[in-house]
Design brief:
The chain is mainly alpha-helical. It has one domain (15-47, 54-173). Helices cover 68% and strands 2% of the residues. It has 6 helices and 2 strands. The protein has helices spanning 15-47, 66-91, 101-121, 123-134, 137-154, 158-173, and strands spanning 178-179, 184-185. It has a two-stranded antiparallel ribbon. Strand 1 and strand 2 (184-185) form a beta hairpin. Helix 1 (15-47) runs parallel beside helix 4 (123-134), helix 1 (15-47) runs antiparallel to helix 5 and helix 2 runs parallel beside helix 5. It is elongated and about 60 Å long. Mean pLDDT is 83; it is low at 1-6, 55-61 and 182-186.
């Protein structure tokens, strides 16, 4: 199998398989879950049961809704935290023993992405809460857009996974292993 970059030392690692589980989990939590909440909000708006009026209607003063700024800032902070946590987790040793490199790598990559996707998915709570508070569907969709954009940044990519595999191989060769299930470096 040809690779675009330098040849990997460990050809046992199936990059496609390594990417699929985190990718599907992320799509479920960061695409389909917010989309489902938006769909519920849409049907509530169509039925006339659209949330409260705390903070006033957005239509009368579009840029001046402080509640939206609060929820938007929380969503952006969570997205940034998810990206930082994913980057840190992917740089740490994931392999417990050299003999279990592939299995430990798959578990470590899955764990790193799962944590970051769950933090990003917490914004879905802000989506529903904002709609219940304001009743405005337009800015509720903007919050969902923040989740979708963060997912596009977070999702596993082929070159990124290749770099993770290469980094983990270098850590194993230098004798740096993860200790136990927590992934703490020895």
């Amino acid at each position: 199998m040809a690779t675009l970059g330098p040849k990997r030392r460990n050809e046992e690692v199936d990059l496609g398989r390594l990417m699929m589980r985190p990718l599907y989990f992320g799509m479920g939590t960061n695409v389909f879950l917010p989309m489902g909440v938006l769909l519920i909000c849409f049907f509530a708006a169509q039925a006339g049961d659209g949330g409260g009026n705390i903070g006033g209607f957005i239509d009368s003063r579009p840029p001046a809704n402080p509640i939206w700024y609060l929820f938007g800032a929380a969503a952006v902070i969570q997205a940034i935290a998810a990206i930082v946590m994913r980057n840190r987790a992917l740089r740490e040793p994931m392999t417990v023993r050299k003999e279990t490199f592939v299995r430990d790598l798959m578990a470590g990559v899955n764990r790193a992405y799962r944590r970051s996707f769950m933090i990003n998915a917490l914004t879905t709570l802000w989506i529903g809460a904002y709609y219940l508070i304001s009743g405005d569907l337009r800015f509720t969709m903007v919050l969902a857009l923040i989740v979708f954009v963060a997912f596009q940044i977070l999702r596993p990519r082929w070159r990124g996974i290749e770099n993770v595999v290469d980094r983990q191989e270098e850590l194993v060769e230098s004798g740096k292993f993860a200790s136990g299930r927590l992934g703490l470096s020895e």
